[in-house]
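Handout, tutorial session.
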Amino acid sequence: MNKIKELFNIQYPIIQGGMIWASGWKLASAVSNSGGLGLIGAGSMYPDVLREHIQKCKKATNKPFGVNVPMLYPNIEEIIQIIIEEGVKIVFTSAGNPKTYTTYLKEQGITVVHVVSSLKFALKAQDAGVDAVVAEGFEAGGHNGRDETTTLTLIPMVKEKINIPLIAAGGIATGAAMYAVMALGADAVQVGSRFVASDEASSHEDFKKMVVDAKEGDTHLTLKELAPVRMLKNKFYQDVAELYSKGPSLEELKTLLGRARAKRGMFEGDLEEGELEIGQVSGLIHDIKPVANIIEDMVAEFKATHKQMNAFNL
């Protein structure tokens, strides 16, 4: 039995990333209804909005789903309480110390997974008592690790040292990529960018189209001094690059970034001035389609790859 399928009671070891401005109840419930594990992205939601999305998700699916919680937000305590009050049984934490809430959440009967970008933090998460870790490579979109370790390198490094289930993330949008990381030791995959280009994602249609049109080299990891973020190259990115050429201070970078820059781009559709977070794998995404089709295609390609690999004679 696959460890992650057993842990979450799901059909396929495919987990949807809890991405800001994309992962509302429609996306999460569609993924869960299609056999994966859907996650509501709490990072882009005020507490009352999160409660509404959880309640709508419960009505839209009778399958397991969870909430992704970036721990750097100021109203984190209120968010945790809403998750408990609403009876959510799976929480993915990120961007913070897993020791802060893991024990408390597990005492409430909640399964806890922590997202890491390095072996060092994977071991810290295991020591904190999490049920599984997501190891996310440098290819991933959105906020990222500073070490720039790729998924292909990170997964076997983490697998060698931990004894809890391992979920691979970063650069995974196809069944073949899923097969590759599972061959390296992952028990499941977490998929972000591919689900952004889905009918059910709450991100703006113009942003989805820009993801589909993206080519190799159209994303870049920047703003490491604040919080490393991979995004599409647009006017805002060019403004950031120009500022870097002048050796900016931390305050100058913060001023340029301003507030709600990601919402402006990904949710409101300002493709010039918005922060358009997406992974390198956007260069492999060529269409916007229903979640059910995305998962169906991934599973079919995984099985075809397995058959192809079995035919090899070395």
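The second record follows below. Compare its token runs with those of the first.
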Amino acid sequence: MVGRRIGAWVDRVMLALVLTLLAVPVVWVLLSAFKPRTEVAALPPHLFVRPTLENFVELFGRTDFGQNTLNSLIVAGGSTLLGLALAAPASFAMAWHRLSWPATATLFARMAPGALFLLPWFLMFSDLGLTGSHLVLILTHAVITLPVAIWVLLPYFEAMPRDLVESAQVDGASSVQALVKVALPVAAPGIVVAAILCFVFSWNYFLFALVLSGFDTKTAIVASFNFVGEGVTNWGALMAAAVVIAAPPLILTLIIQRRLVAGLAAGAVKG
């Protein structure tokens, strides 16, 4: 009994330490975003100050960060939809025919350094006159979202009883109809998980947007580096930008966290 109690207290202490390490940077950024600009980088730091919105007023009033945020939503949303649209039939076919090498090939593409793709893409899209458009960013970010969606959806389709699809085909359903009306509803939890992960990965990705975006299509995470200079850094606006960038994935996850946890657990069991 004594050993169990000591083990339980050790677990609680370790959990508290981990939560503290995770929470301190988040709380620090959040507090700094609402501090006066002169207090953000003060040493020693001021923990208790009168909150102000001047950093957010400067962020959205004096810069194009609102448009940059909209660009991020367009790119992340578009690449997520494209990744799911391609991954759903692909993972269904892999599971149905019991193929693993295509999924492995897409994983290799995801693990390769992003710089490996940049020069060919830049030259190709420049020749086509598409550099700097939302379409280019959506297409390139699909390299991020497609492997993620495939590997999340694959266990769901592999665990799905083949009798369901075969029964639909006996009733006259085509392969596309069997996928849309039978397989996708069964894999709905996996689709939710894949959508969240794809959106977050695309939203946070920096390299492709840095090189391939234009002035009017610059994403929020790229635009935030405008506040960092060689001699002076606008810490207040940078902290406000960090809060805005972190908000959409966090809000999305909180809204559907139950389905997210259930989907991940189901995928782990089915895989």
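Points raised in discussion: The chain has one domain: 54-270.
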